[in-house]
């Protein structure tokens, strides 16, 4: 991180592996949604076999990013076991402070109070306390759950007797689905196919919320640049940013003129 001037405080918001994970995740998800809906709806822009091949190529990219690289990124931050746990809960678990911020966001929608900061940086320690809009902390949990279930249903749709290291994974999934499917008057395979499609629609909905609602705002376009390219954030740009200084919330834009920003460490 570097502090270029009295009015600029640039920190590393995302590491190179964070940016790789997000870019690959976004690209793989878009490819899977488009090819999946082509397979289901029979759109004419490519053949069924081409769409299925591309779909299957994108699957390992999505799963490896979400089940290997992203967990690595999360737990490589923080010092010591408790520091890593603290980093995880601060950044990815929806807690009471997030509930308060979310409540204030709703109040702001009805013009009752200011829009709260969802980027909070501890200037003294040189680390982020949180980087996410509170609603995104809820969506992350739902997305991770949805990825697990769409992968499970996809295994059966790919091959009914698929196994890994001799373990009959597809048969296990079908057996579990068979306990639930009679409630919906479906066979196990029909239930898994319907679940796969509904989860695809969930990802479309989540994409609309994530991009079209939460971030369709000029004041957060800087986060697109940070997550896809630079990895950097200027905390002196005070929209949705709060800087913790000596255990007190001090938005950078309210800092007395001429007061020099403390040089921050890697966030």
TrEMBL record:
Gene3D superfamilies (alphabetical): Transmembrane di-heme cytochromes, Chain C (1.20.950.20)
GO MF entries: Methanosarcina-phenazine hydrogenase activity
Coiled coil regions in record: none
UniProt keyword annotations, A-Z: Membrane, Oxidoreductase, Transmembrane, Transmembrane helix
GO process annotations (BP): respiratory electron transport chain
EC number(s) given by UniProt: 1.12.98.3
Residue spans crossing the bilayer: 20-41, 53-75, 138-158, 164-185, 197-214
GO cellular component term of the entry, any: membrane
Descriptive protein name: Methanophenazine hydrogenase cytochrome b subunit
Lineage, opening ranks: Archaea, Methanobacteriati, Methanobacteriota, Stenosarchaea group, Methanomicrobia
């Amino acid at each position: 991180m570097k502090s270029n001037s009295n009015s600029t405080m640039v920190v590393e918001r995302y590491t190179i592996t964070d940016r790789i994970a997000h870019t690959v995740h976004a690209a793989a998800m878009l490819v899977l949604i488009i090819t999946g809906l082509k397979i289901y709806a029979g759109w004419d822009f490519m053949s069924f076999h081409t769409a299925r091949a591309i779909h299957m190529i994108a699957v390992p990219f999505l799963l490896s990013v979400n089940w290997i690289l992203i967990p690595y990124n999360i737990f490589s931050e923080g010092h010591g076991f408790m520091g890593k746990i603290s980093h995880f809960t601060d950044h990815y678990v929806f807690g009471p402070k997030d509930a308060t911020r979310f409540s204030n966001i709703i109040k702001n929608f009805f013009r009752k109070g200011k829009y709260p900061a969802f980027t909070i940086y501890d200037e003294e320690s040189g680390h982020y306390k949180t980087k996410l809009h509170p609603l995104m902390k809820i969506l992350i949990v739902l997305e991770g759950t949805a990825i697990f279930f769409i992968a499970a249903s996809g295994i059966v749709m790919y091959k009914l007797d698929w196994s890994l290291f001799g373990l009959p994974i597809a048969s296990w999934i079908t057996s579990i689905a068979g306990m639930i499917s009679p409630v919906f008057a479906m066979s196990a395979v029909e239930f898994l196919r319907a679940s796969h499609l509904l989860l695809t629609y969930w990802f479309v909905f989540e994409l609309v919320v994530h991009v079209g609602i939460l971030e369709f705002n000029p004041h957060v376009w800087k986060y697109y640049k940070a997550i896809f390219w630079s990895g950097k954030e200027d905390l002196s740009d005070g929209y949705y940013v709060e800087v913790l200084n000596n255990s007190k919330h001090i938005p950078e834009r309210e800092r007395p003129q001429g007061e020099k920003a403390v040089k921050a460490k890697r966030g």
